[in-house]
Write a structure and sequence with these properties.
This protein is mostly helical. The protein folds into two domains: 125 residues, Tetracycline Repressor, domain 2, CATH 1.10.357; 43 residues, no CATH class. Helix content is 57%, strand content 0%. Helix 1 packs across helix 2. The radius of gyration is 22 Å and the shape is globular.
């Protein structure tokens, strides 16, 4: 090959679509972890993703939008597996252990981002941020009958509440905080 002609191993392919977006969100997450929300800039996220800043601005208007998207992307890219060990107790211990191990960094970064101004900058309440980040992953009351770990936690928590708070029990105002009464 001639001088200045790139060899096949030196040819960089242009990333597009989901591959590019994933690289941008991974870079924004890494930047968020390393420098925090307050010091993260669109320029630093673009540099980390090895792309131009215009690529980020085509997708997001300000740094808060890719930060929220990166947090959601990280959560979706690193799911917590629901084990089936054969016993409810073992399933519950396994899922709680996996959650603790798998989400420690995620929760620390999320809390730090929230406290460093993400909620103020975006104008979101904590509940709105939760809904935006978790989306359809939130456990709805109609899902609890098929979610064994949730039932187990709720069942364990009824030990200090009146018997009417059992999942199959009647509605009781004392049970409202547990979400165990019938709708």
């Amino acid at each position: 090959m001639g001088i200045g002609t790139p060899t096949p191993e030196h040819v960089r392919r242009r990333r597009r679509g989901q591959q590019l977006e994933s690289a941008l969100l991974d870079a924004a997450w890494d930047e968020l972890v390393e420098v925090g929300h307050a010091n993260l800039t669109m320029e630093s996220a673009a540099a980390r993703a090895h792309t131009g800043i215009a690529v980020l601005y085509r997708r997001w208007a300000n740094k808060d939008e890719p930060v929220l998207a990166a947090i959601a992307h990280y959560g979706h890219a690193h799911p917590i597996e629901t084990p089936n060990t054969g016993t409810l107790r073992s399933d519950l211990l396994a899922v709680l252990t996996a959650f603790s191990n798998g989400r420690a960094t995620f929760l620390a970064v999320l809390a730090a981002a929230g406290f460093s101004g993400l909620l103020v900058d975006t104008g979101l309440t904590p509940a709105q941020a939760r809904d935006k980040l978790l989306g359809d992953q939130r456990i709805r009351s109609d899902q609890t009958s098929t979610n064994a770990p949730t039932i187990a936690v709720r069942s364990i928590s009824t030990a200090s509440h009146p018997p009417s708070c059992a999942p199959a029990g009647a509605s009781d105002p004392q049970c409202a905080d547990l979400g165990l009464g019938r709708p």
